[in-house]
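Sorry to interrupt, but I need a hand with the structure work. Go ahead and set the record down below:
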Amino acid sequence: MPGFATRLFPLLLAGLVAGETASGAGPAQPDDDLREPIKVRLTLNPTALDMERLRASRMGYMPASMKLGDTKPVGVMKEPAYEGKPRYGIIRVGNGPKSDTLVALDVTEDGSRLYIDTNQNGDLTDEGTGEWDLKKEISGATVEFATRPVRASWGSPIEETESGDYRVFIFRRPDMNGFSFAKISAREGTVELGETPEADGKEYPIVLVEHTNDALFTVPAKGDLTRRMVELCVDLDGDGTFKGLVSKEGDKEFRSPERFNLADPFRIDGQWYIARPSISGAELTITPVDPPGSDVASLQKPVEVRPMLEPGVAAPAFTVETPEGKPLSLGDFKGKVVILDFWATWCGPCLASMPGLEKLYQKVKDQNVEVLSLNVYDDKESFDEWIAANRGTNYTFTFAFDPAAKGSAESVAGQKYNVPGLPTLYLIDREGTVAAAFVGAQEAKLVEALAKVGVEVKEGE
C-alpha cells in the first residue's frame, strides 16, 4: 500500500494519542478534568461509502495495493479452469479467526478474471465466472472494476466475537502485479453533541471510517506509519453529506469541516471532544475535553470558500521542495507550458490518473512542456516512500512536496490556487498565465486546452 500513514483528508495533524491501546482506547484525562463520556453503538453499513456518496461528500478513496504471488494458499481446495497462469493472495479484514478471504487472479492477453472465495469454503468455482463488473478504457488502457463482499471477522485468532459484510471496491490496470482495493463499508449511527452554555445538545448522523482497508478501527499514534487515520464524519447541516458546513459573513462564504481525524480533538457546537472506537468500530466513546492548543484549534476554523483561478490570471508564484529537499519554484519553469498537478499519496483518483498523465507527458515534452506534480496535504514520509517506488520507473516528470499545512497561508493548493479537491490540474502557459483548470481526471479537456496554447497532442502516439 502506498504511503501507510496517519492522515487527515487532506492533512496529518498532531494527536492526543499517547498511551493508546490496541483496543482503540485513548489516553486518560487528568483526575481534575474527568468528563462524563458518551457511549455510542454503531451498525455496519456495507455500502455506506459507495462512489455516489463519496462524490456527494467530496471524499476520495484511499486504496490498498494487493500484490499477488505464484504460490497457492493452503486453503484453496477447488479452482476453475484458468486460461492463463493464476496468481494468489489474501484479503484480510478484521482480526478474528475468519478474517482471511482467498483471492485468485487469472491474467490473460485480453485482461483477467477475478475469483474471490467470499463464502470462505475454499472453492473458487462456486461464486461466479470471475468476470469484472465493468471494463473502461482510460488513457489507452483497459481498467477493470468490481465491487465484492468479504467477511469481516473480529475477536481473537481462535474466537470470533463479531462479524459482518465488508464490501470492497477493486480496480486493476494491465500494468499492475495484482490489484488495488478500497473499502466502501463503514459504521453508522447518531449521537447527541454540543451540550454547552453556548449551544443545546443536538442529534447528528455520524459515520465512522477506517482508511487502512482492513476493518480495524484502532486510532494510530502520531508517527505510526503502519496505519492510516480513523475518521469521524458528522453531518452537521443535515444534508446527508460530509462536504462541510457552509456559513456566510457578509458577501464571503465559509466552510467548516464535517470530517475529523480521531488522532486529534474535534469541536462540535463550541465543545471539544476526543473519541475512541472499539477495534471493530461497533462502539464509540466520545469524551468532552478542554480546548486544545492553537495549532490544532486553528485547523478547524471555517475556511473561506474561494473559486478556482480563472483563465487569464497570473499564476501565483510559489516555492516548494524537491524529493531531495531542495527549493523548487514555479519561476524555474519560465517560458515553458506547465501542467501543475495537485495530488496526495492517499488519494486513489490521483494515483489512478497518473499513468494517463505520464503517457500525455511523453507525447508533449519535446514541445517545451513540463508536468509539475505537487504533493499536498500529505506527510513527508509517505511522499518519500512513494517517490522511491515510482519516480524514474513508472513516472518521469517532475515531482515536488509542499510542506505547508492546508490552513497555512503558505499552502500552495489551499491558499494560492484555491484547490477544491484532489486531483486538480492547472494549465499554465509560457507567459505564466493560467490557461485552464480541472478538478478530477479530465484528460480530453486537458488535450483541448493544450491545443489552445500551441501544444499538439497527436492521435495514436
Notes: Residues 319-452 form a domain with the Glutaredoxin fold (CATH 3.40.30.10). The longest helix spans residues 348-364. Helices lie at 51-56, 294-297, 348-364, 380-390, 412-416, 443-452.
